[in-house]
Amino acid sequence: MLKKIKLAAVNSVVSLNDAKLHLRVDHSDDDALILWLIEAAKEQVENTTWTTLLRTTYTAYFNRFSSVMVLDDYPITEITSIKYYNSEGVLTTVDQSTYFTDLISTPSIIIFKDGTPTTQHLRPNAVEIEYKAGYINTNAIPSSLKSAILLMIGHWYEHREDIVIGSTTTEVPISSKSLMNNFRKNRFTA
Fold first, then answer.
1. 172 CB contacts (<8 Å, ≥6 apart)?
2. Residue numbers of the domain that contains 147
3. 3-class DSSP state for residue 82?
4. Which terminus of the chain, N or C, has less C-beta within 10 A?
């Protein structure tokens, strides 16, 4: 499965002001750096936990249908459409009445009721599933994930190099890892 962002979130998981308060920074000289660190920490949390934090629209591409289609993002809130290239090569939309969705389980699944449509033979990415994933707003994001982001920002702001010479060795704070562990999802592989 290949996944591409169709519509990305425009807001931030942690505001610049909240990050600066956490860092005890009262000037604007490092605002660009702090914004970059917020985004990097958000990506780290999302990649570690397989959780989409902010509402994002994705299109997932599959080479063919299977009786159970698996989408491993979390939380998935809506399947917007399922399209495929039929045997004549025409992009066709699947009727919603022909499949069930389970968006509560992890991973989320789509189950076809009476068999799967026939895709164009040997066409790569013949199936396109558009869906929305992520929390509805920043208030719905679990506090422990926001805290993990703040801890990473603090660590990276303080230690801007991979290795700190003349000091004891440090890594991304263990506390941020433990905050993310409760949300870690196992990646499904077919």
1. 44, 152, 155
2. 14-28+40-53+137-181
3. strand
4. C
